[in-house]
Amino acid sequence: MEKRYYQPEVETASREQIRKWQSERLVKQVKHAWDNVPYYRKKMEEKGVTPDDIKSVDDLHKLPFITKADLRDAYPYGLVGKPLSECVRIHSTSGTTGKRVMAFYTQHDVDLWEDCCARAIVAAGGTKEDVCHVSYGYGLFTGGAGLHGGSHKVGCLTLPMSSGNTDRQLQFMTDLGSTILCCTPSYAAYLAESIKERGIKDQIKLKAGIFGAEAWSEEMRRDIEQQLGIRAYDIYGLTEISGPGVSFECEAQTGMHVNEDHFIAEIIDPETGEVLPEGSKGELVFSCITKEAFPLLRYRTRDICVLNSEPCPCGRTHIKMSKPMGRSDDMLIIRGVNVFPSQIETVLLEQGYQANYQIIVDRVNNSDTFEVMVEMTPENFSDSLAKIAEMEKSLVSALKAMLGIAAKVKLVAPKSITRSEGKAVRVIDKRKI
Ligand code: DLL
Fold first, then answer.
1. Residue 421 Cα to chain centre, angstroms
2. 382 CA → ligand 1 middle, Å
3. Could you name the CATH architecture of 1-325?
4. What is the 211 CA–ligand 1 centroid distance (Å)?
5. Most buried residue, 45, 111, 118, 270, by most Cβ within 10 Å?
């Protein structure tokens, strides 16, 4: 069967048709998990549900949630739904806390995942004429492998750069005329900065970027687009649910279309687990309805966002998720107030700074301290101390207006905050150490 990676028969199907596919696939998937994943069968039994109770998407709420804690309990093989002899790949999260999370794939799963990434590349304008420069990390991280596979399927000339070695990245980019860049937004911003420093902007042929794996604001998008002269598209995903390409932006750039023929998205209240109506802000939950090796159902992502199924100008009918507004587990509670790093980033970019910052939280004498270190621009760096103090004061009040609590702001020299080649480290919470 010929495959086209703009798949209008799927991507622009009616909402009724999508729901019908989802119901059929969900029923099959629940049976698959019940028959082949004893850990999940036990969870279903504890909730008093059997596969017979699941007849359509309307019954989804009856199923138990799976959380990261379940993945750790079942580590490493306890949630695998196929004999290992049929699995061909493992990926894993960076695992900053506790055990790493492992995800498993059959060849069929890898194929569908790459299809999802191919759709994302096509939505960003990618064709077989493009040179696709993949600077996501290769290896256990899903970024490199996912976009690499998608790029092959679209037929782009694929540059498997992986992350790091900025000089080499820029040399390949200029020599080979890369037209699509895939990396984290923080690395894209760093590459843009390096291009400007070297004065090689006129040798850059990029037209689009596919940036994801971490939160980035609209302001950061505008900055990157302007500096690189490209259109920057968001892409979302997580290892447990396959990797990048669970959802992706189209030319409208107003949210990411979830690949709903493979994943059912729900929004729940993170406190009560109650399913919330479309348009509400809450925790995103995914059910994988086509994956064989790792058939996670109702997996709680911890990402906070909003879903929207209003018609999109691009013609795609798949529901859109907003940019994640933070993670329920990344949310800092400082002096009792909920603070998301993305709110701080918005303020910084609005005030003309770059997204080079670090948030340091500590507890002294039973009270939280909250400091934001922000890099000055090279232009500001030569300003007088009085001017810099003035700028710090202005940031303090802008942050207070956004967050409702006071932060100490320290402006630091350009380039003094360590750059990341993958996901940026924005928060140092010493209270946990
Ligand atoms: O970050 C997969 C990926 C690779 C996505 C390349 C996009 C591009 P994990 O390392 O398992 O997988 O991290 C998943 O990263 O739950 C979100 O909190 C965050 N995340 C991923 N994409 C975005 C995005 C990959 N576009 C976790 N915006 C997720 C904001 C994102 N956060």
1. 16
2. 37
3. 3-Layer(aba) Sandwich (3.40)
4. 10
5. 118
| Mutation pick for ligand 1 pocket among 238, 343, 427 (CB with most ligand atoms within 8 Å) | 238
Alpha helical stretches, state H, 14-67:
15-36, 38-46
Q: What is the CA radius of gyration of the chain?
A: 22
Question: In angstroms, what is the span from residue 238 Cα to ligand 1's centroid?
Answer: 5
CATH fold group of domain 332-432:
GMP Synthetase; Chain A, domain 3 (3.30.300)
Sorted by where each begins, the domain ranges of the chain are 1-325, 332-432
User: What is this structure's pTM?
Assistant: 0.87
Q: Which ligand 1 atom is nearest residue 239's CA?
A: 11
Q: Tell me how far CA of residue 234 lies from CA of 7, 120, 373, in angstroms.
A: 19, 9, 26
Mean pLDDT of 316-333: 87
pLDDT by residue (tens digit) across 70-84? Answer: 998 999 999 999 999
Which amino acid is present at 112? L
Q: Please report, to the nearest 10 degrees, the dihedral formed by the alpha carbons of residues 9, 14, 15, 18 taken in order.
A: -30
